[in-house]
Amino acid sequence: MTPDTFRLTALSLPNVQAGSSLGNEEFRVGGKVFASLGSPMVGQAVIKLTPQDQALFIQEAPSVFAPKPGGPGARGETIVKLAMADAEGLRRALAAACRKATRGKG
């Protein structure tokens, strides 16, 4: 998985728009950020899952997904190691993060 593939996958979801903030490329739905890509974590992305979804994705693919350190990780912010990710698993994780944002809990 490459950053370009991550970007294309995120943008393929309904109503998603790209933007940027502080050197990160962000992906929003309904004005809410649900994923980001960029510095300082080259080769990684962050998606905002529910804690329950985060636990499921980490259990399914612990070499791909990890909680972001500290409080954000406890709230579901999840690091994605792009080199280890497969297209289908990433698509499902991005879709879950997008759904969370559209429910107003992100």
Distance between the termini: 25 Å
Q: Give the neighbour order of strands across the main sheet.
A: 1-2-3-4-6-5
Q: Looking at the structure, what is the overall shape? A: globular
Look at the helices and sheets and give the structural class: alpha+beta
How many distinct beta strands? 6
Q: Mean pLDDT, rounded to whole units?
A: 93
Order of helices and strands: HEEEEHEHEH
Unreliable residue runs: none
What is the tally of helical segments? 4
Please characterize this protein's 3D structure.
This protein is an alpha+beta fold and 106 residues long. Helices cover 37% and strands 30% of the residues. The longest helix has 16 residues, at 87-102. The protein has a 6-stranded antiparallel β-sheet. A hairpin with a 2-residue loop joins strand 1 (16-21) and strand 2.
